[in-house]
């Protein structure tokens, strides 16, 4: 996590087996976390956040499960920011912005397009050992 995200006062971490049910559980947990943090379900960033998380967790389930028995979702929030990451232990680091120009997967294109449309950022951060990565998304509230 970078210094700006480390200053966000709210945190939640969810670790699940890398299997199909992780997508549903992530969505339900996200809704619960946001409600606990006082963020309305009707806030314009919530639906995009739920879709982005579903796409990222689905990608981990589809592409990383063979090397990553678990997927971890990290949430951080503050009065004007909702950040989250999806982490798995597969070494491949997808080029997020290639997805938008048509050379990547359609799921990642959706992630990047939604993130940019609402003024957010997305970045891939590799694990220090090179054997995993996190895709971090930061959205305005």
TrEMBL record:
<dbReference type="InterPro" id="IPR036890">
    <property type="entry name" value="HATPase_C_sf"/>
</dbReference>
<keyword id="KW-0547">Nucleotide-binding</keyword>
<dbReference type="Pfam" id="PF02518">
    <property type="entry name" value="HATPase_c"/>
</dbReference>
<keyword id="KW-0808">Transferase</keyword>
<keyword id="KW-0723">Serine/threonine-protein kinase</keyword>
<protein>
    <submittedName>
        <fullName>ATP-binding protein</fullName>
    </submittedName>
</protein>
<feature type="domain" description="Histidine kinase/HSP90-like ATPase">
    <location>
        <begin position="50"/>
        <end position="141"/>
    </location>
</feature>
<dbReference type="InterPro" id="IPR050267">
    <property type="entry name" value="Anti-sigma-factor_SerPK"/>
</dbReference>
<keyword id="KW-0418">Kinase</keyword>
<dbReference type="GO" id="GO:0005524">
    <property type="term" value="F:ATP binding"/>
</dbReference>
<keyword id="KW-0067">ATP-binding</keyword>
<dbReference type="InterPro" id="IPR003594">
    <property type="entry name" value="HATPase_dom"/>
</dbReference>
